């Protein structure tokens, strides 16, 4: 799993010299990926539940893709997009599709956990490709992190539909703690500093997403829902709390 706050190796000078030209190639590649993703989402959504909800998902996907492609010339220090970012883009397509059954309430009981498990399984693939092909970058790390955050958010909203009111706060923690942290950093700039790479942070993210997927499984005993949700929320909160404490001590 890629960590945004891990300092990537410095890009080679040739890549920096070609950054403006290379970004055009990367933008073209990403635009093609985004177009293919939009077509795939449209086809899957049409089969699942055609309607205004699918159009809303496509509109949000288009906004996100446009924001990413406009940042490529500034954030990607390589001449090409790279297969690592293609895999992350595909993960983004899967995450966007999960919003369709969320809005429509349609789909088979195993659809959401199956698609989410595929998205999580590919999480290590993009990082491995980036490392083995020498294409690690802050852009790739940020892209990967935002896809993970969106996946957690959508899965938490799915899970919140079937839990008691007492567990809703745990779902909010699992789905939105990352966004609360980002919003707080806008008010407290010291929260925006880079953090040291920690295995515990990556492990907490895996626990978070794994727990959210488990909560989607239709055969999960009702008695297990509370421990899974509360345990994962506690682990995630402790991880963020440790980071906040580290940043506060160095503010």
UniProtKB/TrEMBL annotation:
GO terms for biological process: phospholipid biosynthetic process. The chain crosses the membrane at residues 55-73, 80-104, 110-129, 229-248. One of its GO terms (cellular component) is membrane. The keyword Transmembrane applies. PROSITE patterns: CDP_ALCOHOL_P_TRANSF. The keyword Zinc-finger does not apply. Belongs to the CDP-alcohol phosphatidyltransferase class-I family. This is CDP-alcohol phosphatidyltransferase.
């Amino acid at each position: 799993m890629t960590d945004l706050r891990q300092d990537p190796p410095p890009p080679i000078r040739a890549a920096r010299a070609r950054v403006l030209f290379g970004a055009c190639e990367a933008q073209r590649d990403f635009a093609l990926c985004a177009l293919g993703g939009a077509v795939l989402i449209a086809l899957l959504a049409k089969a699942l539940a055609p309607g205004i909800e699918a159009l809303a998902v496509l509109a949000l996907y288009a906004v996100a893709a446009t924001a990413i492609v406009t940042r490529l010339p500034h954030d990607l220090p390589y001449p090409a997009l790279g297969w690592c970012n293609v895999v992350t883009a595909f993960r983004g397509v899967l995450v966007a599709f999960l919003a369709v059954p969320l809005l429509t309430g349609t789909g088979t009981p195993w659809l959401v956990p199956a698609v989410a498990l595929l998205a999580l399984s590919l999480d290590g693939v993009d990082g491995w490709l980036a490392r083995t092909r020498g294409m690690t970058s802050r852009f790739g790390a940020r892209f990967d992190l935002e896809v993970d955050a969106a996946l957690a958010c959508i899965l938490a909203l799915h899970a919140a539909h079937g839990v008691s009111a007492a567990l809703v706060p745990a779902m909010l923690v699992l789905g939105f703690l990352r966004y609360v942290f980002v919003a707080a950093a806008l008010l407290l700039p010291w929260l925006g500093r880079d953090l040291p790479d920690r295995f515990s942070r990556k492990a907490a993210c895996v626990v978070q997403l794994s727990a959210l997927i488990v909560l989607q499984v239709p055969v999960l005993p009702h008695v297990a829902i509370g421990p899974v949700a509360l345990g994962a929320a506690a682990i995630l909160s402790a991880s963020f709390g440790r980071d906040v404490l580290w940043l506060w001590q160095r503010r």
